[in-house]
TrEMBL record:
PANTHER family linked: ANDROGEN INDUCED INHIBITOR OF PROLIFERATION AS3 / PDS5-RELATED (PTHR12663), SISTER CHROMATID COHESION PROTEIN PDS5 HOMOLOG A (PTHR12663:SF2)
Name of the protein described by the UniProt record: PDS5 cohesin associated factor A
InterPro entries in the cross-refs: ARM-like, ARM-type_fold, Pds5
GO biological process: cell division; DNA repair; mitotic sister chromatid cohesion
Keyword annotations: Cell cycle, Cell division, Mitosis, Nucleus, Repeat
């Protein structure tokens, strides 16, 4: 390189300054533009120099020193400052490793000056950006800032540099800018003696959510920087958290209040940054301060629950300590722990086993909100992927469907319904998943047995929206219902049937909207508030004729599902108020409309069901694919149609439907034929006039079933003829006469069906057949059948045997007893004194323990059957007032003692029959006293059942008196208090009660009476005189 020919200028200390060729002296005497022009040439010169140019380095040393003078470092012109900074950066590069500046103060001023110039990196569109980038690149490549390690206050420079770089980084910078910044900062961290708290703060502050949201690029820069320097910076981070978390020195940093946010971000960046911090968190989890524990739980929930976290496996002590917070005494801590479980189950299925036991405990938490969130946690995970929740977790949700709080029950029921719809109805995860949650449909329907109207309404809503969605097309909806019904357990089937019956009661009770509104308030949630709303609804209906007609159409038997949907939407639209987002009045009306609207069943739906059943009969249905056998599908389909024939009889009236039912009547399956007859009975009122061809085909089939079908078929056939034919007297006579003539006690197996048919005929048409039946009863039933034992029973000592092992003769005798009762119930009078003789016969059978002839030819199990039949017959006759009056106290006592029969099955079945009649208020009050005799039943479950039956009957009678003002006229026959004398009478005349002084005999009786009489429901608090007398 040529040396300058220009005359050098001495500096203030006498040194000669050489400028590059063509560059004149740079002083404060020239303009800024000229200074910039000359500096550009100096920049070019230093840019081209390298470390090996020893002569040039020596030549330009005075110039290098001159560029660090106050004139340049304090120059107000930013272009001048930028050019000087570029020169200084090159000077550090050229003279490395020794800087030409020996004064520490000067070095500090220079680096602070260079740092300030780096702010120009912010504007990438600036004409000077390339020079700023060159400055950054040069500093990073040379690691110029490492010179500052020799300075005592180097930290001030580094802090300023870090803050500057984090403040200027933005989304317009390319990857190179970020990399040079990282190189510059990481060299300072990794090659220094340590990172001070202030310098650490300048990095960590960018991780705080507020700063993170303001400058995402600064966050990313800090993130990469920490990852790159993890080994070096980890001890510094550990020291910071130790000072704040353990020692409580929040003054060490302005970021102390953000420690948990920082830990979360640092963990996400690299868990190794917190190797020494995690044990400190375990310490904080055990803090005595509930709010502090809550903050740590929230933090750890995020750390353990994050998708890629393996903290739970890497730090088992901390994980176990965290799980302990599920049992924390502080409610918010338990609540936060439960909320965490959802994310953990979704992101870490392997931890489900650890969580299950803790969630089990929390599902029984005394706090409603926690039990609620346990359900939300499990259901949320289950909806994401059913494999994330095990059977035990689903079991917790199942339990909560019976929670004492409505909010919890509702969440559990709705959650299960959503799982069922997703995995069973839509089959989103295959057959295994569907099988896993197949129990849900049964469980949800079982809840309909609960007393709360809220539960019932929700089950109806779930059925309409999730189990059998009403918005499906008719064929798809009926297919869904068909196979659902076939796969339900017996109790769920009963619940579903009851639900339809309740809805039908509301819809069909009366076509008058006034009746519905004012007489069915109890079928709405919060009946007190509902009373006000229904009055308002009545007023609206009175003013709007169109609305009234829509409601009448909605409850009409001929209303189709599509019409119902239109009516409900139209009524809701008219009652809606746009200015009132939450409208309790509208919600209450919707509840009523949803209960009475036929959203599932209409004529089209019944036709679709029948077609499905026909396919099952023909073997072309998808029965096996749906998980049911063809026989099961056919039988369940008929049972379904039978139930619907009660609730929607008009929907069956079509030739196509009846043709299919006739086909079922010809099938060999007795249950199928029986159900088909019952459907005809319920729906065939217009067959005779509208469908003569069906009538002509049906009559001979019904005659055949009444004569030679099964007992159940015979019963239904007789009732069907009586219900749907106008010439029923002729039809019944054509059955009665040949059957009455052909009775033969020597062939008992051929007697059962004729006896059933004759009994029901005499009950349904007493005026026509009472007299002919009297001779049949006297000459055949009593003398020839009941008073003779033609066969000898097995002497095996058994007290009970299955139905299929009972001898035909005993079965015939049981039906003969039932025939006697039906005959008397049909007559409903005792003018011929037939009831007295029948009661004496039944009493004699009870006295003889079932062996009426006392020839000892009958087996023990057959005697049990006859005792049960006799006791049940007396109880049946007692339901008719004219016969109840003639039952003597001795006969009542004999009937009551059946509940203490030596045979367990007799006691059980008799108690069930007794309870069933009492809850329907069919039996007089004294029969409720019979349950008191169960006090000495040897089986604990029977005693408990008797007590529950008694309490149930007391509750029903109380409710009946409350709901029926007219009941006050006959309180003596309804008030439960009046059953006490009958109880005492029965107990006092118990044959086993022989010694009143015997404590053992008295103990069980008194305990049972005390348990019943000590309950609040037993005593009528509104009648204090009666109550006090009875208690005394």
């Amino acid at each position: 390189m040529d040396f300058p020919a220009t005359q050098p200028k001495p500096t203030a200390d006498g040194k000669i300054i050489y400028y590059p060729p063509g560059v004149k002296e740079i002083t404060d005497k020239i303009t800024n533009d000229e200074v910039v022009k000359r500096l550009k040439m100096v920049v070019k010169t230093f840019m081209d120099m390298d470390q090996d140019s020893e002569d040039e380095k020596q030549q330009y040393l005075p110039l290098a020193l001159h560029l660090a003078s106050e004139f340049f470092l304090r120059n107000p012109n930013k272009d001048v400052r930028l050019l000087v900074a570029c020169c200084l950066a090159d000077i550090f590069r050229i003279y490395a490793p020794e800087a030409p500046y020996t004064s520490h103060d000067k070095l500090k001023d220079i680096f602070l000056f260079i740092t300030r110039q780096l702010k120009g990196l912010e504007d990438t569109k600036s004409p000077q950006f390339n020079r700023y980038f060159y400055l950054l690149e040069n500093l990073a490549w040379v690691k110029s800032y490492n010179i500052c390690f020799e300075l005592e206050d180097c930290n001030e420079i580094f802090i300023q540099l870090f803050r500057t770089l984090f403040s200027v980084i933005n989304n317009s910078h390319n990857q190179k800018v970020q990399m040079h910044m990282l190189d510059l900062m990481s060299s300072i961290i990794m090659e220094g003696d340590g990172v001070t708290q202030e310098l650490l703060d300048s990095i960590l502050i960018n991780l705080i959510p507020a700063h993170k949201n303001l400058n995402k690029q600064a966050f990313d820069l800090a993130k990469v920087l920490l990852k790159r320097t993890v080994q070096t910076i980890e001890p510094c981070i550990a020291n910071f958290f130790n000072q704040v978390l353990v020692l409580g020195k929040s003054s060490v940093s302005d970021l102390s209040e953000h420690v948990f946010d920082l830990i979360q971000e640092l963990f996400a960046i690299d868990p190794h940054l917190l190797l020494s911090v995690m044990p400190q968190l375990e310490f904080k989890l055990k803090s005595n301060d509930g709010e502090e524990r809550l903050a740590v739980v929230r933090l750890l929930a995020k750390l353990f629950g994050s998708k890629d976290s393996d903290l739970a496996t890497q730090n088992r002590p901390l994980w176990q300590c965290f799980l302990g917070r599920f049992n924390d005494i502080h409610v918010p801590v338990r609540l936060e722990s439960v909320k965490f479980a959802s994310h953990c189950l979704m992101n870490h299925p392997d931890l489900a086993k650890d969580l299950t036991e803790y969630l089990k405990v929390r599902s029984h938490d005394p706090e409603e909100a926690i039990r609620h969130d346990v359900i939300v946690t499990i259901i949320t995970a289950g909806k994401r992927d059913l494999s994330l929740v095990n059977d035990q977790l689903l079991g917790f949700v199942r339990e909560r469907t019976l929670d004492k709080r409505w909010r919890v029950r509702k969440e559990a029921m709705m959650g299960l319904a959503q799982l069922y719809k997703k995995y069973c109805l839509h089959a989103e995860a295959g057959k295994d998943a569907a099988e896993k949650v197949s129990w849900i449909k049964d469980k949800l329907l079982h809840i309909y047995y609960q007393n709360s109207i809220d539960d019932k309404l929700l089950v109806e809503k779930i059925f309409a929206q999730y189990l059998v969605p009403h918005n499906l097309e008719t064929e798809e909806r009926m297919k869904c219902l068909y196979y659902l019904y076939a796969s339900l357990d017996p109790n769920a089937v009963k619940a579903l049937n009851e639900m339809w019956k309740c809805q039908n009661m509301l819809r069909m009770a009366n076509l008058s909207y006034v009746y519905i509104v004012f007489n069915h308030v109890e079928n709405l949630p919060d009946p007190g508030k509902a009373q006000d709303f229904v009055k308002k609804f009545n007023q609206v209906l009175g003013d709007d004729e169109k609305l009234r007609s829509q409601l009448e159409l909605l409850i009409s038997p001929t209303c189709s599902c599509k019409q119902a949907d239109i009516c409900v939407r139209e009524i809701a639209r008219k009652l809606a108020n746009p200015k009132q987002p939450t409208n309790p009045f509208l919600e209450m009306v919707k509840f009523l409309l949803e209960r009475i609207a036929p959203v599932h069943i209409d004529s089209e739906a019944i036709s679709a069901l029948v077609k499905l059943m026909n396919k099952s009969i023909e073997g072309t249905a998808d029965d096996e694919e749906e998980g049911v056998s063809p026989d099961t599908a056919i039988r369940a389909g008929l049972e379904l149609l039978k139930v619907l024939s009660f609730t929607h009889p008009t929907s069956f009236h079509s030739a196509e439907t009846y043709e299919s039912l006739l086909q079922c009547l010809r099938m060999e399956d007795d249950k199928v034929a029986e159900a088909a007859i019952q459907i005809f009975r319920n729906t065939g009122h217009k067959i005779e006039t509208d469908l003569p061809q069906i009538r002509s085909t049906l009559i001979p089939i019904l005659h055949q079933k009444a004569k030679r079908g099964t007992p159940h078929q015979a019963k239904q056939a007789v009732h069907c003829i009586h219900a749907i034919f106008s010439n029923k007297e002729v039809q019944l006579a054509q059955i009665f006469e040949p059957l009455s003539r052909s009775l033969n006690a020597d062939v008992p197996e051929q007697l059962i069906t004729p006896l059933v048919s004759l009994g029901h005929i005499s009950m349904l048409a007493p005026d026509q057949f009472a007299s002919p039946m009297k001779s049949v009863v006297a000459n055949f039933i009593v003398k020839d059948l009941l008073m003779n034992d033609r066969s000898t029973g097995e002497k095996n000592g058994k007290l009970w045997s299955p139905d299929e092992e009972v001898s035909p003769e005993v079965l015939a005798k049981v039906q003969a007893i039932k025939l006697l009762v039906r005959w008397l119930l049909g007559m409903k009078n005792n003018q011929s004194k037939s009831a007295n003789s029948t009661l004496r016969l039944l009493s004699a059978m009870l006295v003889s323990e079932g062996d009426l002839t006392e020839q000892k030819r009958i087996s023990k199990s057959d005697m049990s059957r006859l005792r049960l039949a006799a006791g049940s017959a007396i109880m049946k006759l007692a339901q008719e007032p004219c016969y109840h009056e003639i039952i003597t106290p001795e006969q009542f006592q004999l009937c009551a003692l059946v509940i203490n029969d030596e045979c367990y099955q007799v006691r059980q079945i008799f108690a069930q029959k007794l309870h069933k009649a009492l809850v329907k208020l069919l039996l007089p009050l004294e029969y409720m006293a019979i349950f008191a005799l169960c006090a000495k039943d040897p089986v604990k479950e029977r005693r408990a059942h008797a007590r529950q039956c008694l309490l149930k009957n007391i509750s029903i009678r109380r409710e009946y008196i409350k709901q029926n003002p007219m009941a006050n006229e006959k309180l003596l026959s309804l008030l439960p208090e009046y059953v006490v004398p009958y109880m005492i009478h029965l107990l006092a005349h118990d044959p086993d009660f022989t010694k009143p002084q015997d404590v053992d005999q008295l103990r069980d009786i008194l305990l049972f009476l005390y348990q019943v009489m000590s309950t609040q429901t037993f005593w009528n608090l509104q009648n204090p005189t009666l109550t006090q007398n009875l208690k005394t």
